[in-house]
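queue> holo job accepted (NAP)
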Amino acid sequence: MIDHHRIALVTGANKGIGFAVARALAADGMTVLLAARDPGRGDEATAALRAEGLDVHRLTLDVSEPGSVREAAERVETRFGRLDVLVNNAGISGGASQTPGAADLDTVLAVFDTNVFGVIRVTDAVLPLIRRSSQGRVVNVSSGVGSMGNMTDPAHYMSRLPALVGYPSSKAALNALTVQYAKELRPYGILVNAVAPGACDTDFTRDLGYDLTRTAAEGAGIVVQLATAGPDGPTGGFFDDDGPVRW
Ligand code: NAP
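queue> job finished
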C-alpha cells in the first residue's frame, strides 16, 4: 500500500458509486475532492462525509462543460498543487431511446459526451497535476456491458440484454481510451485502469427499472482497489471483483 498523504478527485461523486468511492478513499486517509456538477448536491454530499470526520472538499465540475472542467482544474492546482488519484466516475445511461435503427442521435451524442469525451476533458485538464504525483492513479468507471467478449458470448447474460446504440458502445470506447492513456503514462509510473463495478442499486439502475441488491459501496470496492494500487499494480487493464475482465 502507498503510505503518504494522497489527494483524490472523484467525478460524479454526489451520489451512487462515486459517493461511495469518495467515502472509501477518504476513510483510507486521502483528501478527497468530491466533484459534482450541481453545487447544492455537491455541498450536501460533502457535508455528509465531513460529518463522518472525513477530509472531503466539494469541487464543482460538469464533465460535459469545458469551462467548468478548466475552472475545476485551476482550483485544484491553486489549492492543492497536485493530484494523486483521478476517478472518472460520472456517467449517464441515456435511457431507453437507443435501439439500433431507431436511436435518438442527440441522446447517443449526450451519452458519449459524458462517458467518453468527458473523461478525456477531465483527464487532460488535470494530467499536469497528476504528473506531479509520484504515484498517479487513474481509474475509469466502465461497465461489463463495454466488454465485447461479454456481449458476444451466447453463454453470458449480457449478450441477451436489449441492444443499445449508445451506452455499451460508450463504455467500450472508454475501455479503448484506458489502454491508450495507460500506454502514454506508463513511463511516468501513472497507472490507468478501467473497472466494472457490477450491477448496483443506484438511481442509475433504478431509472432503468432494475431491482438490484448489490450496493454502491460494494461496487466501489474494485475502484478503490485500483485507486490505491501500489507501484507494481496493473495498468491498461479492465477489472471487476473477480479479476481481469475480457475486452
Ligand atoms: P448515479 O447514481 O446515477 O450517479 C451518476 C453520477 O454522475 C451523479 O453524481 C451525476 O450527477 C453524475 N453526472 C452525470 N452527468 C454528469 C456530468 N455531465 N458532469 C458531472 N457529473 C455528472 O449512477 P451510478 O450507478 O453511481 O454510476 C456511476 C458510474 O458507474 C457511471 O459511470 C456508470 O456508467 C457506472 N456503472 C454503474 C453501474 C450500476 O449498476 N449502477 C454498473 C456499471 C457501471 P447528478 O446527481 O448531478 O445527476
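queue> The pocket of NAP is lined by residues 11-12, 14-18, 37-38, 41, 62-64, 89-92, 114, 118, 141, 143, 197, 199-200, 202-205, 216 (CB under 6 Å).
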